[in-house]
Automatic annotation (TrEMBL):
It comes from the Bacteria. This is Lysozyme inhibitor. Residues 1-19 form the signal peptide. It comes from Siccibacter turicensis. Keywords: Lipoprotein, Membrane, Palmitate, Signal. Residues 33-95 form the C-type lysozyme inhibitor domain. InterPro entries: MliC, MliC_sf. It holds the Pfam family MliC.
Length: 107
């Protein structure tokens, strides 16, 4: 019986891990913006209230912050600010990606 448990336990744990990854992907939306400078892919996770994006050749995870209008995500250095189908990315209050728009098919 102990041998069976030793064999099944890793399988059950792997199944839980797979399920958690599956649920995480189901709660994540991928948004493809076209900005003036270049394309921008943003992964939006509403339950975690965060976005993930590549800026300055590094993956950044920004947490949702306070916003008077639209949705604002920040890590203290970078800010992703979206409202409707448009977005802007800032680095230390300086715009680095401007006029980012979602294509009509994603609206």
């Amino acid at each position: 019986m102990k041998k069976l448990l030793i064999v099944l336990l890793p399988t059950l744990l792997a199944g839980c891990s797979y399920y958690n990854n599956f649920v995480e992907r189901m709660n994540t939306d991928t948004l493809e913006y076209q900005c003036d400078e270049k394309p921008l892919t943003v992964k939006l996770n509403n339950p975690r209230q965060e976005v993930s994006l590549v800026v300055d050749n590094q993956q950044r995870i920004l947490k949702q912050g306070l916003s008077a209008s639209g949705a604002r995500y920040t890590d203290g250095v970078y800010v992703f600010w979206s409202k409707g189908d448009s977005a802007t990315v800032y680095k230390r209050d300086r715009i680095i990606l401007n006029n980012c728009q979602l294509p009509a098919v994603q609206r």
